[in-house]
């Protein structure tokens, strides 16, 4: 009786299936509980990976809920690569559809923020521009310039107070989140990702730059939408957190 | 990507090493005694940058490294994942470790990675497949690898080879070396109701380039027989130390790794395990 890896995998991921015949104990009897060691290793190790990846979600929903949810997730979305540092990328979409969490509408965006933090942590090291380059560029040339962000920069835009939620679950004595839309920028000045709450308009400004708009176009879009858009505060954040790696002028990329 | 680490260590010393954990970075730089080399799980260092690679680069100035893969799925029925092989080659070229090793196990089926070292039957067909995969790995990564004996909890009725013969045949046909995990020998022998010393006696010891030691958990199977689980979450137990000593009395001193991957202790406790290995190695050296 031979056991192929399709049968083995199916039985691993589905505890309702019986243990494949041909897997035996030392006396040749069915393997029974011995097979469960592998089932358990797979489910527990992937659950632990998800707990490590989504510490804020874990805190928000609690241990029992998270483990039950992870059990569903890992069967619906088993890893497709051996890089456990990135396992869980389907979590935001999964949470949007996950009925037991339907009253926790902010969870998918919190998951997006946690994924952004992890991607930033493992992102490529690229040196930032010198801050004075921006300050010395004449305004007309600056308006035509395009900015390139570091591979460690991530923008997460949300209709939920994801920054407040994140703070309240990672920092002692953080204030209670207030119900409002929040855009968050993740940057990585050295090795530890930094989470910054963006001023109104800044999310649109950064998003426009990321999509290839010039500095001037991005500014106009943001200022049109948000009269009080504070560009200088935003530039301070970008420069001090090593977020900009290149400025190109004119139409060149 | 950072600059390539320096090429300073061609081989692992026949001394104690430990599985590197980032929380021990400062302790190791301050005083690594008696640890003389470090091992990493390849997959944890396949990101593009940041602290993990920066730490490796700093440590590689002072320590010989062993890169130990857990995700290649050499025993898999599916072809090896070319993207994963390319990432491995990239890491090995960058770090230039003294050793590279993987497991006699599978972890990927079709597109699913299962994050465990799963068992395989030992037959002529599976032998041929493993040989083909190892040839491919050694060619692409560009260096000889070591293959580790697994922990097993069950057996396949269809197997026609003993594990020791299976491993010896792989080493003979591919030219790879073997990594002898003494804790795995103890765990498997207990679970299969065989004699761990007989396994060591029958093992192709001349191919062994590295030894692993680690802790395991105890459970029972459906009949109440002991079922040991390779957990790497505690200290090495006395019978495994005795089996280690029995082994290196036969082989002479070899690079010996303490694996502690879960519930990782503070550095002094891990260093104490390494010191215990050092003491046994000293005895054999004299």
Automatic annotation (TrEMBL), chain A:
Residues 5-95 form the Putative DNA-binding domain. Gene3D superfamilies: DUF2063 (1.10.150.690). InterPro entries: DUF2063 (IPR018640), DUF2063_N_sf (IPR044922). It comes from the Bacteria. It holds the Pfam family DUF2063. This is DUF2063 domain-containing protein. It comes from Pseudohalocynthiibacter aestuariivivens.
From TrEMBL, chain B:
Belongs to the UPF0276 family. It comes from the Bacteria. This is UPF0276 protein ACFFUT_04235. It comes from Pseudohalocynthiibacter aestuariivivens.
């Amino acid at each position: 009786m031979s056991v192929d890896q399709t049968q083995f995998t199916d039985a691993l991921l589905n505890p309702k299936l019986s243990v494949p015949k041909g897997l035996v104990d030392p006396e040749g009897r069915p393997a029974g509980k011995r097979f469960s060691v592998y089932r358990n290793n797979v489910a527990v190790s992937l659950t632990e990976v998800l707990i490590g990846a989504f510490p804020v979600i874990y805190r928000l929903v609690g241990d029992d809920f998270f483990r039950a949810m992870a059990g569903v997730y890992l069967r619906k979305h088993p890893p497709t690569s051996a890089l456990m540092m990135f396992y869980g990328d389907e979590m935001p979409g999964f949470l949007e559809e996950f009925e037991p969490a339907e009253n926790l509408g902010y969870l998918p965006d919190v998951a997006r923020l946690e994924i952004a933090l992890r991607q930033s942590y493992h992102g490529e090291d690229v040196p930032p521009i010198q801050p004075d380059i921006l300050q010395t560029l004449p305004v007309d040339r600056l308006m035509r310039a395009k900015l390139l962000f570091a591979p460690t920069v991530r923008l997460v835009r949300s209709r939920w107070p994801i920054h407040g939620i994140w703070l309240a679950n990672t920092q002692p004595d953080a204030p209670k989140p207030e119900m409002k839309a929040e855009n968050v920028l993740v940057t990585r000045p050295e090795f530890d990702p930094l989470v910054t709450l963006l001023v109104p308009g800044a999310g649109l400004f950064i998003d426009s730059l990321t999509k290839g708009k010039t500095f001037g176009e991005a500014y106009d879009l943001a200022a049109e939408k948000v009269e009080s858009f504070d560009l200088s505060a935003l530039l301070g954040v970008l420069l001090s957190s090593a977020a900009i790696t290149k400025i190109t002028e004119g139409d060149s990329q | 990507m950072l600059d390539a680490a320096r090429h300073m260590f061609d081989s692992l010393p026949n001394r104690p090493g430990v599985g590197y954990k980032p929380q021990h970075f400062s302790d190791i730089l301050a005083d690594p005694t008696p640890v003389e080399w470090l091992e990493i799980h390849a997959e944890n260092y396949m990101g593009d940058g940041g602290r993990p690679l920066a730490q490796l680069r700093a440590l590689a100035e002072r320590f010989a490294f062993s890169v130990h893969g857990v995700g290649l799925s050499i025993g898999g029925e599916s072809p090896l994942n070319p993207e994963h092989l390319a990432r491995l080659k990239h890491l090995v070229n960058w770090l230039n470790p003294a050793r590279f090793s993987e497991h006699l196990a599978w972890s990927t089926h079709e597109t699913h990675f299962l994050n465990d070292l799963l068992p395989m039957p030992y037959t002529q067909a599976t032998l041929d497949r493993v040989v083909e995969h190892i040839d491919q790995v050694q060619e692409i990564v560009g260096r000889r690898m070591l293959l580790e004996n697994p922990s097993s909890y069950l057996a396949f009725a269809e197997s026609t080879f003993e594990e020791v013969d299976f491993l010896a045949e792989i080493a003979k046909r591919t030219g790879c070396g073997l990594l002898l995990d003494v804790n795995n020998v103890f765990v498997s022998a207990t679970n299969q109701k065989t004699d761990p010393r007989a396994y060591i006696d029958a093992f192709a010891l001349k191919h062994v380039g590295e030894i692993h030691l680690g802790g395991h958990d105890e459970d029972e199977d459906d009949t109440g027989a002991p079922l040991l689980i390779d957990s790497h979450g505690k200290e090495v137990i006395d019978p495994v130390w005795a089996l280690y000593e029995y082994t290196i009395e036969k082989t002479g001193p070899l690079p010996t790794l303490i694996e502690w991957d879960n519930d990782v202790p503070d550095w002094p406790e891990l260093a104490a395990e390494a010191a215990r290995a050092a003491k046994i190695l000293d005895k054999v050296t004299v």
